[in-house]
Amino acid sequence: MAPSSVLRIGTRGSPLALAQTHTVRDFLMTAHGDLAAPDAVEVVVIKTTGDKVLDQALADVGGKGLFTKEIDEAMLSGRIDIAVHSMKDVPTWLPDGIVLPCMLEREDPRDVFISNKAGTLSDLAPGGVVGTASLRRQAQILHRRPDLKMTLIRGNVQTRLRKLGEGEVDATLLALAGLKRLDMATAATSVIEPEELLPAVGQGAIGITCRGDDKRTLAYLDPLNHAETMVRVTAERAFLEVLDGSCRTPIAALAEFGADGALGLRGLIARPDGSELHATRRDGAAADAVAIGRDAGEELRARAGPGFLDSLTS
Q1: Are the beta carbons of 140 and 194 closer than 8 angstroms?
Q2: Residue 117's pLDDT is what?
Q3: Predicted confidence (pLDDT) per residue in 2-46, tens digit
């Protein structure tokens, strides 16, 4: 067993996951003198089911919880103390005993378009093939461009860019935040504004989980939490919770603070084929983040009508 002075961070092994984990490690070492010593913070790489199964859509093999299941198990068994996650990969409900007390300041939440054949999504020729593993991206693209063809493309950032370069697809989409953290932002052909493609819930935010009864670790994480990011993502996840979001449900949301300090939330749900899309907006105080998210979700659930979400998850 590791000495009690060691803080163990669990993470997936992709280049992006490791980059995010090293950022968290550096913040911890800067904020706490006792963690600045060599080997005081240990990074533990955990292979998840989501990393192993790359030839099927996440919806067909259990959803985005496949990126956190093994990490959660390691935490509950005491093998790790904290875990670093991309917030868009964190399931709507956390396992009993695990809490999410900390988020780092959010990076740019927008998606990017990457192609060797067109400068923007609008410029892509009719019949163009877009590779994505995201039903959220697929539904919104097909809603605007039903003439395009969608195909499954999974794997880490490097794998997707390689498949694009080999001509498997004409274009793909990635989160700008991930490219920035990998110092690969120049790979983007163009940035897509939220008005055209609303991001995933939590996109661009890094979340850190730990055991709810681990007071030592909670104290370590407290100074790292970015309050504004926590409020924004909390509103988005409240929206998602009402809609029982899974990888079978195209759901998007983005909460932002306006110049007047008010919290604004945009959200949408859609059919995977883009044939039907419902969107809404809510504005209010930061203190009402959960209520804002839930109210927006309830509106879209009612507008979509009975059976809409059931038809997506069956």
Answers
A1: no
A2: 95
A3: 445 699 999 999 899 999 999 999 999 999 999 999 889 999 999
Mean pLDDT for the chain overall: 90
Note the pLDDT tens digit of each residue in 168-200.
999 999 999 999 999 999 999 999 999 999 999
Domains of the chain plus CATH, in order, are 7-104+205-225 (3.40.190.10), 111-192 (3.40.190.10), 234-313 (3.30.160.40)
Strand locations in the chain (E): 7-11, 41-45, 82-86, 98-103, 111-115, 129-131, 149-151, 171-175, 190-192, 206-211, 251-257, 263-270, 277-284
Report the chain's terminal Cα–Cα distance, integer Å.
44
The answer to whether 290 and 234 are in contact (CB under 8 A) is yes
> Of 51, 72, 81, 89, which residue is the catalytic one?
89
Q: Are 195 and 72 in contact (CB under 8 A)?
A: no
Q: Is 183 a catalytic residue?
A: no
Among 233, 239, 237, which Cα is nearest to 256's? 233
% of the chain surpassing 90 pLDDT: 80
pLDDT value at 60 more than 90 = no
Cβ atoms of 103 and 160 closer than 8 Å: no
DSSP-derived letter for residue 157 is H
Tokens found for residue 196: 């055209």
